[in-house]
Design a protein that fits this description.
The structure is a single chain. Strands 1, 2, 3, 6, 11 and 12 form a six-stranded mixed β-sheet that branches. Strands 8-9-7-10 form a four-stranded mixed β-sheet. It has a three-stranded antiparallel β-sheet with strand order 5-4-13, with no helix packed on it. It starts with a helix and ends in a 7-residue tail after the last strand. The chain is α/β, with parallel strands linked by helices. 41% of the residues lie in helices and 14% in strands.
Length: 421
């Protein structure tokens, strides 16, 4: 039953109840990626958010975000607001005229590199705004662990998006070895996948991982990036999972929730990547961006409130310390005295010590190319030979050319070109 039909039925029923008017409006629906404790915190913030419209909100959290949104769009029943982490997907929806340009107040918070403008009919327009961000280009380890000869934890399984922890490695290596300019060309589809700099990132990753047994490879391919499950169903993290005798993990800031209360340290990844000193202070970032799919003006106002100080403070206050959100221009909201050294380090890196921030490359790519990248990483991890790499890079180049050819038909629309800031 569609949401529209459900609303009509609800209105009809209310009309039969004395004292109930016939002008009841449907709650605004927000579709997003947060589940578990993150989802609970965001939903609690929505429940307390007074935007002056008298509207209520329904939050739908799912790990299968793209699949859910696509099915809702096909049923002509989209959410009012959706929160996505893929600029490539958001660009695709804007090209199809399924997104609504943001109102001015929200557009002013479209901080780079999370929300580049799009050129549509010779006009610059803003279609999404970051609500929550994450810092990548980080390495985690147990306190006191030597970094001289790290052994790397790798868990590549992640339901429909398995492989992305590996693409993060390739992206981080390319950023630090070749710099933000070439990284941007590659991420935005303007660089051949067979370019020597791209190939070097893949071969460096294989070298860093070292020789692995078939059993170890299979374990990494089938183990979640969260690690194994511990008591109560809580993920252990790869640093504490049985069968992973590893000392270091390359992972985004969000993974801190699996190590809450544990004695771990975090540091920039640059020292491990065989990169150039000029790019030492460059970091990859990711984000969860809100976009409006509805003509309802209250949806625009909701995004304005969520991206502003009131919405942030509510969300931050409702979240447990391990899943407190980071924000694009202020990181954490004044880390409290109880903040852990890990929280303070991440906040410091994001707000002051990082000189260049570049958006996650695979999340910039069109979905077809991103998905092919994920699959290629899984295949290369299983067989990191030069012959296999040559074949995979050729396949990715073929996809890039085809995607660019298909997109080139529309001369009135230009996707993001600058994803570093």
């Amino acid at each position: 039953m569609s949401r529209v039909l459900r609303v009509l039925l609800a209105v009809c029923l209310l009309a039969l109840v004395p004292g109930c008017g016939s002008d009841t409006r449907d709650p605004l629906v927000v579709l997003g990626p947060w589940t578990g404790e993150e989802g609970k915190a965001f939903e609690a913030a929505l429940d307390k958010l007074d935007d002056g419209t008298g509207r209520t909100y329904t939050y739908e959290g799912t790990r299968s975000l793209r699949e859910t949104l696509v099915s809702q769009l096909e049923a002509d029943d989209p959410p009012d607001v959706a929160v996505l982490n893929s600029i490539g997907e958001l660009t695709e929806y804007a090209r199809r005229d399924e997104l609504k340009p943001l109102a001015e107040a929200s557009a002013e918070r479209a901080y780079p590199p999370w929300a580049p403008t799009l050129l549509v009919d010779s006009r610059r327009r803003t279609y999404w705004v970051p609500l929550k961000v994450d810092l990548k280009s980080l390495v985690w380890s147990r306190r006191g662990t030597s970094s001289e000869r790290p052994t790397w934890c790798v868990g590549l399984a992640s339901q429909a998006t398995s492989g992305w922890p590996g693409t993060d490695w390739i992206e981080d290596l390319l950023l630090h070895q070749a710099g933000p300019a070439l990284y941007t060309e590659w991420a935005t589809g303007r660089l051949d996948w067979r370019d020597p700099a791209v190939e070097r990132a893949w071969t460096t990753w294989a070298k860093l991982l070292g020789k692995r047994s078939p059993e170890s490879v299979e374990r990494s391919l089938t183990t979640s990036f969260e690690g194994s499950t511990g008591p109560g169903g809580r993920p252990r993290g790869l640093l504490g999972s049985p069968g992973f005798p590893c000392t270091h993990e390359h992972q985004s800031a969000f993974i801190r929730y699996v190590y809450a209360g544990e004695d771990v340290t975090v540091e920039p990844s640059a020292r491990y990547l065989d990169g150039q000193s000029a790019y030492r202070d460059a970091f990859e970032v990711a984000g969860d961006m809100a976009a409006v799919f509805s003509d309802d003006p209250d949806a625009q106002q909701l995004v304005e409130r969520l991206s502003g100080p009131a919405g942030r403070e509510l969300w931050w206050a409702e979240a447990d310390p391990a899943v407190r959100p980071l924000f694009p221009d202020t990181a954490g909201l004044s880390p409290p005295a109880s903040a852990t050294p890990v929280e303070r380090e991440i906040d410091s890196l994001l707000t002051s010590r990082a000189r260049t921030l570049c958006f996650d490359a695979s999340d910039v790519m069109p979905p077809e190319l991103r998905d092919a990248f994920h699959r290629a990483v899984l295949e290369f991890f299983r067989d990191p030979t030069q012959r296999e790499l040559d074949s995979l890079l050729q396949q990715l180049e073929t996809v890039r050319v085809q995607v660019n050819t298909d997109a080139g038909v529309d001369r009135t629309f230009r996707p993001p070109q600058d994803i570093c800031a």
